[in-house]
Each structure stands twice: as C-alpha cells, then as structure tokens.
Design a protein that fits this description.
Elements: E1 2-6, H1 13-22, E2 26-29, H2 31-39, E3 45-46, H3 47-51, H4 66-73, H5 78-86, E4 94-97, H6 111-114, H7 121-131, E5 137-139, H8 145-154, H9 164-190
Parallel strand pairs: 1-2, 1-4, 2-3, 4-5
Helix pairs in contact: 1-8, 4-7, 7-9
C-alpha cells in the first residue's frame, strides 16, 4: 500500500504518516513534507523517486508525471493492470493533498506576484484520487486524517477498511475544496 503526501498545510501530517508507516504502508512525499518527516526520523520516501524524475522547472513539475498520475488513476481492470505492469507504475492507495496558499487578493496585484502560487499538480492529484475514489482514498482536509487512520487500523491497514460511502464523502469534499481553490485563483486574475 502506498500513500502520497503533498501538503502545504502540514497540520496532523506527522500523525498521518506515522500511522500509515505503523500499518506497514509505504509513504512518499513532496520535498518540504518529506524533509519535515525525515528530519523527525520517519522513513518517508521522495515523490521524485516515485515519479522517476527530479522536480523540474523550478518546482512547477514534481507530481504531474506518468508514474504518479498513472498510479493514482489506475483501476482494477485487466487493461489497467496490464498497462501499469508494462510501464512499471506503482499503484497509489491514498493521496493526502492540500494546495499552495494563495496571496491575499488586493487591488492592483499583478500576475507575476501570484502566478507561482497557483497550484497545478496538487489539484490534479486530489481530483484524480477523488475521481478514482473506489481505488484511492482522497484526503484534502487534515481534519479527516484521524478518522481515516482509525478506519485503516480497524481493518489491519487494508485500504478496503475505508468504506465506499466514506470515500464518496471524501471525494465530494475534495471537489468542493478544489472548486473553492479554483474560484480563489480566478479572483486573483480580477484583482
């Protein structure tokens, strides 16, 4: 079982990572999160290793790769299983993701002042996990970590311990978070 952590809001991320590791999961994270967890002594891998490529273009490309997105979007169909095997893609079972913090909206803010804060990979991963919630647990809110960990613990770490009804609720929340984020980005273009 593999979890991908890509969070700006690091509340409770150590609890989630420690709990997943204790349950026997592999955990990979983006640079800042991975460094924080590794510095605390937790064996968390780097997203670049899963992606098969280093972070590129000044940090703008780290998760938008075939390996990461293919692992998130793969389903249990014979065709999907054959393709991920052919391309050596690792299945992702959980995505914990929240987005870069946007600057405050202010009159006269120019594009250069906010464009680097527009998250692309995070929304793609969370939306992909939400779309594929039958196979991937989508976590967009740190307040949901404890409940999901408790469910996983009750099922000996198996992702199937998180019932579809809960996954659908988490997916709805992920799309709600994504929609609000997109609306906030749109507003910056109007400033």
């Amino acid at each position: 079982m593999l979890a991908v952590l890509a969070v700006s809001d690091k509340r409770n991320i150590d609890t989630l990572a420690i709990g997943l590791l204790r349950l026997g999961w592999d955990v990979v994270a983006t640079e800042g999160t991975q460094k924080q967890l590794a510095d605390a002594g937790h064996p968390v891998g780097r997203i670049a290793d899963l992606a098969g490529a280093p972070t590129l273009l000044g940090g703008r490309v780290k998760t938008l790769t075939l390996s990461v997105m293919g692992g998130i979007l793969a389903r249990d169909t014979p065709a999907d299983l054959a393709e991920i095997a052919a391309y050596d893609i690792t299945r992702v079972d959980l995505v914990a993701c929240n987005y870069y913090l946007l600057p405050e909206r202010q009159q006269g803010i120019d594009f250069a002042a906010f464009r680097e804060k527009i998250d692309v990979g995070g929304p793609a991963m969370l939306r992909g996990a939400a779309k594929n919630c039958e196979h991937v647990i989508p976590l967009g809110d740190p307040d949901d970590y404890d409940e999901v960990l408790a469910l996983l613990e009750s099922g000996a770490g198996s992702p199937s311990a998180v019932p579809l009804s809960r996954r659908l609720a988490l997916a709805e929340k992920a799309f709600r978070i994504s929609a609000a984020y997109d609306d906030s980005v749109r507003a910056l273009f109007q400033a």
